[in-house]
Amino acid sequence: MKNKMKILFFLLALFFVSCSKKTESKVAYNKGEMIISTDESFKSVTEALVEGYMISYPETKITVVTNKEDLGFLDLLNDKVRISVMSKELSPEEIKAYEEKVDMKIIPAKFAADAVVFFVPKDSERSSVTIDEIKNGLQSEDKNFVFDGTNSSNLNFVAQKLKKQPKDLKFSIIPGSVNVIEELKKYPNKIGVIGLNTISRPYDKGAENLREMIKILPVMDNGKSYAPDSEDLKEMRYPFTRVLYFLTNEGNFNIANGFIRYSCTQLGQMIVEKEGLQPYNIYRREVQMR
């Protein structure tokens, strides 16, 4: 009887180990499903990286949802998404909330240099904008700066750069970055504010059409002009350069961390570059001559 019981326990143990291994095998960096939250301003580069990852790993399914940056961060804390794409510098309170709810130290995975850009319609006589004009304009009742929405990444970032709270700024809103571009010509004295990635894709017809409608304004600071181009982004000279990064609530190396690693490797950085953004991790090519 005792021998039979031992055999039974042994078989049960094998069964549970087998089930455990099968469960674990379903979760890996190269298979499974997850959701990524991104602000509209970084949607294009996020989708491009997701497409590349799913081509490399056909057993993965990644869904990209568009949400305001602040709301995407809250969804990450509440386990509604596995990754949130961010640009703003988190406050001490937000860092504390992340580390308490996710139960991990916060480690931003930086992958691209993007920018907030200021623009006018193509036929506008204005050719640049100064830092002082931006500061003063965002305190004026004229509300001459037009953003794509409240709590958008663009508004949050500009407010941080000016050391202000978004609620303390005065501005106009046209919901959606593309709408800001298409409708700004109705308001000739105003300046539009969008994320570079909205128009940065060099070989995309839609982005090309949007670029043809506007004039991007260099930003003047202390008498020097800076443009949101590859050189000024690479050297972080453009005053409104921002670094995009991933946050995840995944504590092990499964699909989320697999995607993050992919995005920061050479292949992912090539995708970032093709999106017209500046790769954060720059790979030097060395050629040996013999």
What does this structure look like?
- There is one protein chain.
- The chain has helices spanning 2-25, 43-56, 69-77, 92-101, 131-137, 153-161, 177-183, 205-212, 230-234, 255-264, 266-274; strands spanning 32-38, 60-66, 83-86, 109-121, 129-130, 145-147, 172-173, 191-195, 214-216, 219-221, 224-226, 241-248, 278-279.
- Strands 1, 2, 3, 4, 6, 7, 8, 9, 12 and 13 form a ten-stranded mixed β-sheet that branches.
- The chain contains eleven helices and 13 strands.
- The protein is an alpha/beta fold and 290 residues long.
- It is globular, with a radius of gyration of 23 Å.
- It folds into two domains: 32-112 and 244-279, Periplasmic binding protein-like II (D-Maltodextrin-Binding Protein, domain 2); 113-241, 3-Layer(aba) Sandwich (D-Maltodextrin-Binding Protein, domain 2).
- Keywords: Signal.
Amino- and carboxy-terminal Cα gap: 77 Å
Q: Structural class of the secondary elements? A: alpha/beta
Which second-level CATH architecture of the largest domain applies? 3-Layer(aba) Sandwich
Radius of gyration: 23 Å
Pfam family, one: PBP_like_2
Keywords: Signal
Protein name: PstS family phosphate ABC transporter substrate-binding protein
Domain PBP: 30-263
Write a concise synopsis of the structure shown.
The chain is of the alpha/beta class and 290 residues long. It has helices spanning 2-25, 43-56, 69-77, 92-101, 131-137, 153-161, 177-183, 205-212, 230-234, 255-264, 266-274; strands spanning 32-38, 60-66, 83-86, 109-121, 129-130, 145-147, 172-173, 191-195, 214-216, 219-221, 224-226, 241-248, 278-279. Strand 1, helix 2 (43-56) and strand 2 form a beta-alpha-beta unit.
